[in-house]
Amino acid sequence: MPIDAAAQVHPEAEVADDVHIGPFTVIGPHVKIGPGTRIGPHAVIDGHTTIGRDNRISQFVSLGGGPQHRGYKGEPTELIIGDRNTFREYCSVHRGTMLDAGVTHIGNDNLVMAYSHIAHDCVLGDGITMANGASLAGHVHIGDHCILAGFALVYQFRHVGPLAFLAYCSGVVQDVPAFVRSAGSPAEPHGINSIGMRRQGYSSDEIAAVKKAYRTLYRSKMRLADAKEAIREQAEASPAVATLLASLDNAQRGIIR
Known about the structure:
Elements: E1 8-9, E2 14-15, E3 20-21, E4 26-27, E5 32-33, E6 38-39, E7 44-45, E8 48-51, E9 56-57, E10 62-65, E11 78-81, E12 86-87, E13 92-94, E14 103-106, E15 111-112, E16 117-118, E17 123-124, E18 129-130, E19 135-136, E20 141-142, E21 147-148, E22 153-154, E23 159-160, E24 165-166, E25 171-172, E26 180-183, E27 188-192, H1 194-199, H2 204-218, H3 224-235, H4 239-250
């Protein structure tokens, strides 16, 4: 039987026929769950939560809970989760608030390990790995294929660019540009994520171009505005550098330096 007899699935929930739901899991009335998804025992999925196909949700996971925000007044905000994501034991994801777009959004193919937390109004791309205990405050944006090592923390409203790497116990209080490795608390830049770039199919030339742009940004002693203009010229010949530049242009609260 796909749904265990001891599970509590609200009759108004929309659950695909082949979804497996373990014992003592609770599914709320406004939840939608796509085909191929498997949910372990003792999970709670609540609120206006939409889950795509082929997700893996472990025991004791909490999805779609109300945001931890004093300004939240019970509005019907949302949590939207894409396809093929994995949520391991005891992780939690909260729905959005009306102080933002009203939606917490998680893309596809992400791995959220045990005890991780994703707060209200966060936006995650695809292929992200959050290791055990990594946590995002509200309104955080994480780009595709980022890695957050164990207990990495990101302060509210910060943006982390694609393929950035946050080392163990990083404390991110400013934006992290695309491809940049960071460590420490507060987090500081420590080169580029060349291993991650190679895994994602970037050529040696593209990696070299990003390294050059990194040196311009962090080692030339230029003011940030001047460094961005120099990188803008380099971006004309390199799509990867253009991605780095886009993350700099989108930074609204300063970058790690």
